[in-house]
Amino acid sequence: MTFVVTEKCIRCKYTDCVEVCPVDCFHEGPNFLVINPDECIDCTLCVPECPVEAIYAEEELPEEHHQYLQLNKELSSVWPVINEVKLPPEDAELWASRDDKFQYLQRNSQS
Amino acid sequence: MSQISGNYIDGDELDRYEDAVLKYRRGEISEDKLMVTRLQQGVYGQRQDGVNMIRIKVPGGRLLPHQLDSIGAILEQYSKEDIASITTRQDIQLHSIALGDTPAVLRLLADAGLTTREACGNTVRNVCACPLAGVCEREHVDVQPYIEQTVEHFLRHPLTQHMPRKFKMSFSGCEVDCAQGMIHDVGVVAVNENNRFGFKVLAAGGLGHKPREAVVIEPFIEEADLLPVIEAVIAVHNKYSDRKKRAKSRIKFLVDRFGVDGFLEKYREEVKRTREAYASRENLLDVVWQRGSGEGNYLAGAPREVTAQKQPGQFVFPVATPLGDVTVQQFYGIAKLLIDEKIEDVRTTQDQSLILVGVPGHRLPAIRAALAELQLAEPIVGDNVVACPGTWTCRLGITSSRNIAGKITGSAGDLSVRVSGCQNGCAQPTVGDIGIHGEAKRIHGKLIPHYRMHFGGDGRTGGHIGIKGPEIPAARVDKAINRIQSVFLENRENNESFLQWNERRAPEYYKELLADLIEVSANDVPQVLKDHGDQKDFKVLQLGGGECAGVSQEDVAANFSEATMERTYLRSFLLARKYLQAIDCAVAIARLVGQSLLRSSGQAFNITDLQEIAVKLQGGLASHPYLVEPLTIFAGELARFESEVDDTGVEQINFDQPGFERFLKMLNGWTVLAGHYCQEKNPTVDLSPSLPEAPLTDFDANDPLLTSSLSTTKDTAGAAFAAGSTVTNPANTGSPLNTGS
Questions:
Q1: pTM surpassing 0.80?
Q2: I want to staple B118 with a disulfide (CB 3.0 to 4.6 A). Which of B123, B227, B323, B510 is the partner?
């Protein structure tokens, strides 16, 4: 099993989760974070940290976020590890309550 | 001084457990199904396949000498390890026992009067006590009888069988609160207020990730009020705690969610009901209260030296068992010694040690000598180090807590040092002088074992959760602990304690003091790559986290359990002629069971209105009209009963009590049929303990209510009723609805 970061994180990217991860398995993209499923130990610590409730256990992943399981796996193999908290984007709060954010996901800094 | 008197054993239950293990080994039931039964009986999985940890509950930490003897014998015969462990919650854990042997072990424990029931899983765990209960000059009362009353009440209690998450309690005999109520889901503290004796009650504390200090929910209650108050907190937990996200489901998170005032409001709503429901019961125990001083500088956890009891000429003799380890020979030897010396009270402590209670002063030297032959002695300065099992056996362990704990001491200052192998807090690192918990950090591309440090925690009255210190590579954490202790001993003022010294320190202080140990340069990596005791580079195994049942199944099981409780309350209210409250219970039962039907038939289930639930069910469960139709009728009938009582709900001349009783029989019958349906859809959980007993024989086929329901649904409903009844009584070939009439 693993835990999975979902859409709610896109353009919010609060990094409270990376501070508590006991195995440093978060990876950072331009406007989204992902969990490396091969390293996550299912400790659950990141879940209550996330201010926008973006993180789910794989088995509790809502149907509509199913694609994020694969996305976490794929992007964690290319994005670098993040293990220190940083400031969220200035407009993070505005994006926190938005839905349908998949369209804004940036896979690399050029796009 | 009271002795343990509770009988917590149920032989039939052990038969069922043995049956489940056999079925699993023959491939007849799934691993998940076995897990639910296994956890309920205190049997956990380990890191190692095929073997289990068995956790023995020891209420208040109190054991009898012959029980130590039995544990020794079980350890010798069945465990692959040389030792059993005393835990910080006063349990005793046996490790590495083959699954096939677990039923035999549970039986031997039962023969010795020991239970493992509800030692694991989402249950009321072992109840802790202050170490000197019954013998301490400070105390107002020996809390042990109250602990036993509480354990007996909540063990196998319907409300505690499917809680969102585990629930821990502690009891202390005076205001000092050595049992550390602050870190418990419920902490009970005996107090003397204005010359009245009673209890202060704390709730919603907890350790682990996101530790929280408990809030006071009752500054003073009478002793008879204790069970209703605790039950109300459990009811709040059941109703509101997050069942979806296990990481947020301890009761402490409700204080975050509702705020302290909001949490208290929810509690007060519940306690109003439990108090009324319990009003007719007598809970007073035959216990002597006395005015203790209620103050003094007692240690949390356990005494560190021979201590005089309030009983003249008698002493408490503490026995150090480093890291909680006790060997087979030590179990046998201590048991024999106590039996020879006619000492009947031996206790586990929150510091993972043992204390012998009621030792006559003139026998102290003999006891000391006899213990020495078992390689045991009183604590020595510096050995107050506590550790969880960590990667030795625990599925959740990240670091080898026991290996590092063996290398560190509490120094000449005799500090309490607490080592956990992960963030879950089993060694209680946030309430020690110095605590550390294991984690991994990725530095220079390598995963390096680390410990997060905590300083100055104290779970007694007036104390607080420790401050968070820096993260140090595991390879250097012993150096870091030594350095802090040296600096403290050199710089402290007037022999102050570490807690006092730490009050003047901020996290930044420790960060500077330990800066060179925190920093890992690229060149340092090879020196910090290994965990203590490991030959290979550090790696965190993926073992799939903790063990727990699936969410959907737990939702349904929880609803049926809660309905069972509502039936109990309903009876109390009827006895007291509180009809309005009784009707509320019936509404709750119909709602809880209706929601379970929604959940089991794959529909949204967060609907509370009975009519609405009925409408949704008509859509999703059209094939089972016998489950759907009665609910519509119930809603109408309940509204009718409600109209017959006024707002006060007290005795009403025109309340149709016989009609209400008849209605309840139908509600029970429907509950059973719904239970069978839900059981079929959720095979992992066992709903049978939550269903009303033999209700189908209570059905009256000629009941006008029922016949109207049947006539509207014609043959399908009749057939369905028959199908439902044959589950209960396969021999029945006649009409299913009047077998008892």
A1: yes
A2: B123
